[in-house]
Fold each of these.
Amino acid sequence: MQASGGADFLQLSPRSAPARGLTGWLADAIRGAIIDGRLRVGAPLPATRVLADDLGVSRGVIVEAYQRLTQEGLVGGRPGAGTRVLRPPRVSAHAEVSEAAEVSVDDAEPGEAGSPTASPGPVRAGGMPGPGELPQRWRSQAELDLSPGVPDLSGFPRGAWLRAERMALDRASTADLGYGDPRGSELLRRELAGWLARARGLRADPDDIIVVTGVAQALALLGQWLKANTDGRIAMEDPGSRGSRDQLAYWGLRPVPIPVDDEGLRVADLAGSGLPAVMLTPAHQFPTGVALAPVRRRRLLDWAADTDALVIEDDYDAEYRYDRAPVPALQASAPSQVAYTGSTSKTLAPGLRLGWLVPPRRLHADLVAAKRAADLGSPALPQLVLAQLIASGELERHIRLVRKRQRTRRDALFGALREHLPEARVRGVAAGLHLLVTFGEGDIAIDDAELADRIHRAGVLVHPLSWHRQRPGAPGLVLGYAVHTPDQLREAARRIASVTRAARPAAGVGTGGRLG
Amino acid sequence: MQASGGADFLQLSPRSAPARGLTGWLADAIRGAIIDGRLRVGAPLPATRVLADDLGVSRGVIVEAYQRLTQEGLVGGRPGAGTRVLRPPRVSAHAEVSEAAEVSVDDAEPGEAGSPTASPGPVRAGGMPGPGELPQRWRSQAELDLSPGVPDLSGFPRGAWLRAERMALDRASTADLGYGDPRGSELLRRELAGWLARARGLRADPDDIIVVTGVAQALALLGQWLKANTDGRIAMEDPGSRGSRDQLAYWGLRPVPIPVDDEGLRVADLAGSGLPAVMLTPAHQFPTGVALAPVRRRRLLDWAADTDALVIEDDYDAEYRYDRAPVPALQASAPSQVAYTGSTSKTLAPGLRLGWLVPPRRLHADLVAAKRAADLGSPALPQLVLAQLIASGELERHIRLVRKRQRTRRDALFGALREHLPEARVRGVAAGLHLLVTFGEGDIAIDDAELADRIHRAGVLVHPLSWHRQRPGAPGLVLGYAVHTPDQLREAARRIASVTRAARPAAGVGTGGRLG
């Protein structure tokens, strides 16, 4: 077997090199790669020793080629930092490369096409952000961003996470790092089964749980199942999460809006509908914040049992509960009708993309097959870290800490709204990370999108309630309070109140009491 | 606003508690949860102080309830470790709970259903493991497991990973932890663009890259696109990765087998086929190990350009190249026809589920929409860690180290096969993590599945080539060498040779030269 097969770097092979003039050949190859963009500004060249070894040539050849390119100003090096590409050569046939190319890696190639036209922006939708996006005019940054659905990421427990990761790496077997069970790490599923039983009343064995890449993936898997096994219609809360709606629609389902009132989803509307499925947020409805009333819970589960319908329970922010009695998950009462899903997006960070799906057993095998076909299973290390955080009690400590902080923020925003906009009705205060502001009878004609637009011009980003509706309804504003300090929230409330009052001079400003 | 809304723990609410007898009420609630399985053996009870605070009752109530349960033998505690559930109570109406329940969390609930019937086993398929599974008789553990497709996980760079994670957590912005770009972290896409350009010749801007949860997800996204935009047929290598084939079939595609010979895929067979797509492993064909011959590379890309077909390039183990010249990715020659995909599964660990997809630009927006609908984007932290490992040069150092180790293993297995089974032909030695053993003309009738079965009984797990075929063809054995030491591999070769020779007494044993 011969010793050297060439270098991965630029796929250089000594076999394609000339017998003489190796230095020139190498310098040409590197120069060519800089010109055609394979080597960009800042790209490292291999260490001379390493490349000489790969190519089976003397180190002097490499050193000389690098020197030649250095003299041309194309590459340069600092001791210890290696040799890197400094700038593209000036090629007369191409457009002159501006000086800006020297400092910005992003803009290094004005001649090549930049971003594809359909460059997607970041996703910032409702309680369960999904494919839906805010209209363009709200996407620009606001001074105070009260978009709902975003937790306080400044509180992410970086130290605890790193400690847990060290422990997880210490303990991980090679099997843990291999192609694993598509349902997810057994260790995590065991911890989750205990955690969900204690905190949410869930009835699930570790083997019932499928670890997913966030609630979004749970909906993708369930959407595929429903599309293949039902007529594709699904009842959804109206108003409700636009992200969830858009996502299920992507998978071929047809969302059917069911109104939400002060007791949650109007379950009576499901009777006789023949709908094969319903998706809802019973613990804290998005965006109205109401909890599904006990009598409706019972009727919903009766309806599902009678018609063999599937209930998708999105428990997206159940961990944030301030001054109302805890309610177990729907799944606890009807594990054979309810597919339960939740995630760490609101307790730790959405960027973890780590959630769970607990489906009825009759769906389990199909959903595992779908998960396997989607990605063979979720990444292992974050699962092991989360298992460690649950087992050590760190997750629970973190949630208690954040909940306390969020309660203070909620109090600040709620108090300021009562002070500055007393005629508005504020709902959803007992739990979650957002409030819903609605207006009195006289304000039924308010265009909340227009109002949100004006508030945005005052530096505060809020969601108009209409943006989360499928059918027209009363106007409102959805205000997330998770990411701002009490002072910032009070300032936001002042501006919202001031813009809202200016926007409706006809209405009874200063009438005092709640009108809603 | 009232102070206490109750406890998440068992959803206990002081509002549902009696005015008197709080201790009994609490003990009953906890006992009930232990009986119905919400609290399992080993589950922690909240600290008395915390639960007293949640419920707005005196701590003495909690302490007394815990003491009552301790006396019943249901819970117990050690100082510092908190109070935990010890065993389920003996309930006469139910089946007696065996003593085994005390020691095993898994078996704690004999009355409840255990695993679902369709409990999926771990996935261990070919070069790109997918939904396909080995037949049951090969799934049991063998003393020496030479399944291809599994890298050496004992070499996972745990220290480097943890260091990079610390740095990533230090530097991560709150935006990095939020709902991100469905294409993946910009930092990682920038590092990948440079890395893939240098090491594989790829022509891609950071914005062209979609970070995916392994090559499996890349195929899922491409499969959806092809199903929606073509007649659904796709040419695939035969023999080829069974996992990839099964996976694309899941997404509704119809794989069309195209034979592979010593120069790779028989590209001529594509002419006039009208096939809208082809998937192949050009750098190191799975499982034969051949590289696509230069003239075939050219013809394949010509065919794709002429017929506007999509070429899916699975670059699954390009990092392992020992004694042959490096070949740039196909994508480097035809970025508008080729969808390139690769992952860290063979260089770091499959459990990371971290890969990339570089599609032609005309597919880009659709694939990003599909990625978003699948999971909103891949987990952020592992992406930031990988970006750090590339930027610091740690990934390259790791690959060089592992490649050296794998070369030694390859040499050991190859040498032992030449010594003990000289009449066999061994292919695919110049690269990758596996070899293909085929036999002489006289052995064309060997049943390789039967042979692999006998070898398995001798304690060595290998894949029969027929298992990776769509159509019948010459027999062979696929041997992965990544996870064993040279000594183990020599022992495996001895056993394979011994079983193989015993299995075919009629053939010319000891004829010496290569027959294939």
Amino acid sequence: MKADARARLADARVARLATVTAEGSPHLVPCCFVLVGDTVYSAVDGKPKTTLALRRLANIAAHPRASLLVDHYDDDWSTLWWVRVDAAARVVADPGERELALERLTAKYPQYVRTPPPGDVLALDITRWRMWP
Amino acid sequence: MKADARARLADARVARLATVTAEGSPHLVPCCFVLVGDTVYSAVDGKPKTTLALRRLANIAAHPRASLLVDHYDDDWSTLWWVRVDAAARVVADPGERELALERLTAKYPQYVRTPPPGDVLALDITRWRMWP
């Protein structure tokens, strides 16, 4: 199972990231990401959503638990699937790890070649895999 | 803004629902849904994911806050958008409201005609709209 889950997660172009606010409410954003080993990296990019980017970082400072979902939807419901990872979230502090994460993100998303993400890089260290069906 | 957000939410075929577990961790599942006024309805269907369906219901019993996201991804990042609603979540108890919700769900998803969802219906009473860009 995990090999399938890993391939589906690694290949997905977009995921949805859930964190919990300091007040205990769920917070949800779509994000680009790359899977490296058992860690998911995601860059807080330069688009005009600064407040939301900060929210994501404030949330993981308060509650370092995150959940990341990739899924396939089609009106043929026999083809549906999803993969979810629960993780411990942190902002990458180590310059070498940050460089690796940005390299892998840029290899997956050529969009980053022209405009490298200027902000922080989130790391999600996976603690649990779930897939359906 | 809200008219655009409403149309995008109403038209989306799949959304992602975030809740918070009793232990304070985020929980995330894709779901089908229908927007009626300022309430989102989603059925807990009969697929073999009973544990997860129960999890969703246990979560909202412990923490009645939910967040629901619809988004558009394309490798042309100039076309990206998302709409998110934060909501108070509840299981529909009123038989008339349940009937209405199932009618609207079935009108949106013909898949439900053959196999009506046998389980509970979740209601998310929207308290906040957010959209990007």
